[in-house]
Amino acid sequence: MSRLTIGWVALPLFAGFAVYLIPRLARPLALAAALASAVYATLLFLREVPLSLGLLDRFGVTLLLDPLSGFFIFTNALVTAAVILYCWDTGKSAFFYTQLTILHGSVNAAFACADFMSLYVALEVISIAAFLLVAYPRSDCSIWVGLRYLFVSNTAMLFYLMGAVLVYQANHSFAYVGLSRAPLEAIALIFLGLLVKGGVFVAGLWLPLTHSESESPVSALLSGVVVKAGIYPLMRCALLLPEIDPMVRVFGVGTALLGVAYAVFEKDTKRLLAFSTISQLGFVLAAPEVGGFYALTHGMVKSSLFLLAGNLPSRSFKELQQVPIRRSLWIALAIASFSISGFPLLSGFGAKVLTMKSLLPWQVVGMNLAAVGTAIAFAKFIFLPHRQFPPDSQSQPLKPGFWAAMLVLLGGLVLANAVYYEAYTVENVVKPLLIIGIAWIAHKLIFRQANVKLPRTAEKFEHLIGGMSLMLILVFWMVFAWVAN
């Protein structure tokens, strides 16, 4: 298993560089790397004990692979495969597939490593590959959005690197477990870097513009897997170090409420999805011990929704409510929206039930409010008008690989429903149905007519950096008030 693991980590990077030598094999190589990750994740689920590897010595790479990392790696595999299928006949260049494959490999590395220096390298490679994918259209807007993402990300990683150095100074090792013996400043600095990178709470307000203005396949990758490379280490640290767990849970609840508060008032489809991503990351962090399953479900839902949004005739809900959309698109939109709302028969139901059962008492009210808000936000998609178009209709044609991608993602939502089949009790089924019912009534009576436009001041570039400073003060205060006691 050790050699297999090293080969699996290296495979996407070799495949990515091989594409430059054999451009015509760009798509098969990229798809093969994603499928290999799916197979490897399945092997992790079948192992009875976690796999721990220490390469080189205490200065070297530490890997920890267990079912938690298996969920994240499987998410990366499914989302990457779906995006490749979606882009298959769209004329994307070998450069696009190279960056996509390198991004896939570096995200895998972030899910596998258990030391701060290896994680730093993986996150920096992710930043560069993501920037090149965001800027791929070479338009002024895409280049600016990409540079903005790169600057914010690299600034955050400077704080992270200072924290990693403090961990090494205290332990002569970069391993995650050394965080408990490191100075409290190290926890605050590392947390800030990961919170920004993962798009958590106000540190994640760079995310709506980046995810909404990227091409739909890139948005699917960013929301489906890339941001999870930032929150996965937070979950891993919370599980390894009990004193970190309360902080992660607090940020989980705060993030879930902040994201959904924006999403329910948003009038733009892609921005709604981006704010929902912030909120759903909060659900993953709110219960770190079961967050892997929620991350898998969210990855499939959000990737499918971004790909669907890219095929709608407009981004504006106001315009979409005036002209019926194609019924086949609406059915796919409804399946994904039902899943994220927690409707039974889809994996979102089991993921929400499992998360809600793992909450601490003080989290319950906040997370239930976030669940109601999620159902309100996605009622906007469910209640869009739709009709069957005749075969010779002049409506916008779908991408050739669109339905293959939907089969992977929406089919995954149905199959993953079996992961937590114990959720199907009368009590567990009734509660989400009540939440969805209340949310739909609120949508019809209040939010559909509401004309509230939330300010975007906090999303401005200069305010993102200022917000990062305020977050650092908040994290320092939390660390000294919480962990020190």
Automatic annotation (TrEMBL):
Membrane topology per record: Multi-pass membrane protein
Subcellular location field: Cell membrane; Membrane
One term under GO cellular component: plasma membrane
Keywords attached to this entry: Cell membrane, Membrane, Transmembrane, Transmembrane helix
Coiled coil region boundaries: none
Transmembrane segments: 6-22, 29-47, 67-87, 117-137, 149-168, 188-209, 247-265, 272-294, 329-350, 362-382, 402-421, 433-452, 464-484
Classification via InterPro entries: CPA3_Na-H_Antiporter_D (IPR050586), ND/Mrp_TM (IPR001750)
Domain of life: Bacteria
NADH:quinone oxidoreductase/Mrp antiporter transmembrane domain span: 115-374
Protein role: NDH-1 shuttles electrons from NAD(P)H, via FMN and iron-sulfur (Fe-S) centers, to quinones in the respiratory chain. The immediate electron acceptor for the enzyme in this species is believed to be plastoquinone. Couples the redox reaction to proton translocation (for every two electrons transferred, four hydrogen ions are translocated across the cytoplasmic membrane), and thus conserves the redox energy in a proton gradient.
Family note: Belongs to the CPA3 antiporters (TC 2.A.63) subunit D family.
Protein name, per record: Cation:proton antiporter
Source species: Thermoleptolyngbya sichuanensis A183
